[in-house]
Amino acid sequence: MSDEHARSMPVGALAAEAVGTAVLVVGGVGTAVLAGKTVGTVGIALAFGFILAALVYAIGPISGCHVNPAITLAMAIRRRITPVVALGYVVAQAVGALVGAAIVLVIASGRPGYSLSADGLGTNGYGSESTGGYGILPVAVAEIVLTAVLVLVVFAATDSIATPGGAGVAIGATLTVAHLIAIGIDSTSVNPARSFGPAVFAGGTALSQLWVFVVFPLVGGLVGALIHAGIVAGHRDRDEAVAQQA
Q1: Which sequence ranges are marked TM in the entry (predicted)?
Q2: What is the dihedral of CA 59, 87, 146, 41, to 10 degrees?
Q3: Where are the alpha helices (DSSP H) in the chain?
Q4: What gap in Å lies between CA 46 and CA 192, rounded to an integer?
Q5: How many Cα atoms occupy the beta-carbon half-sphere of 118 within 13 Å?
Q6: b or e along 137-176 (b: 16 or more beta carbons within 10 Å of the residue's beta carbon)?
Q7: What's the gap between Cα 196 and its chain centre?
């Protein structure tokens, strides 16, 4: 998820973000909707993690593979990308999420007996029996903390001192763990775009609660960026102190 390729916002980078987000939704949400009863929670978590890991290697060199407005916000806060580029990325991610959700819906609609209102579209939510009945406070804490951890790992795994080639594995594994923790809480967002696409088509409660899965992951992105900034600053101060003593 390097940001160096995103500073001038070429058309290819926007296309990569749109396509990448669509693929993430199809791979993750599609698994939940089309095969969730077969693969269970672990299978869904692995699907999200595997598809993100693959995308890091596939489109990382093109756009940085944000595919998540929380990551994009964090990059903008750290001045890795400009506000204009960030806005372009978020729009592309939203479009991609809509396309991905539409693809999942078209496939799911071909299953005999499928009902969008009854079977859903992998949407996020809180306070209902289907998502464990958790209230908004635990959902907010989960989304903030898990998104912050994801952002922290993204920055760390793509740092110049990180192990070369390991970013996809680290980031994919982190998303997998986030889903293992939060699927039973709110179906796991940690990504406003992932929540946006399915909610638009599902409507109703999913759409009215969408703000929760936009606001709190974005807050988590901010927290993760600030934590990493503090860690990097502390590391540099230590290195400078060691250099002065040498």
Answers
A1: 12-35, 41-60, 81-108, 136-157, 169-190, 210-233
A2: -60
A3: 11-63, 69-77, 83-109, 116-119, 136-157, 167-186, 192-202, 204-208, 212-245
A4: 19
A5: 4
A6: eebbebbbbbbbbbbbbbbbbbeeeeeeeebbebbbbbbb
A7: 11
What pTM value is reported for the model? 0.91
End-to-end, the C-alpha distance of the chain in Å comes to 35
* Residue 6: partners with Cβ closer than 8 Å, 6 or more residues away: 13, 63, 64, 66, 75, 80, 81, 85, 89
pLDDT tens sequence across 136-184? 999 999 999 999 999 999 999 998 777 778 999 999 999 999 999 999 9
- Give me the torsion for CA of 159, 69, 55, 79, rounded to 10°: -30
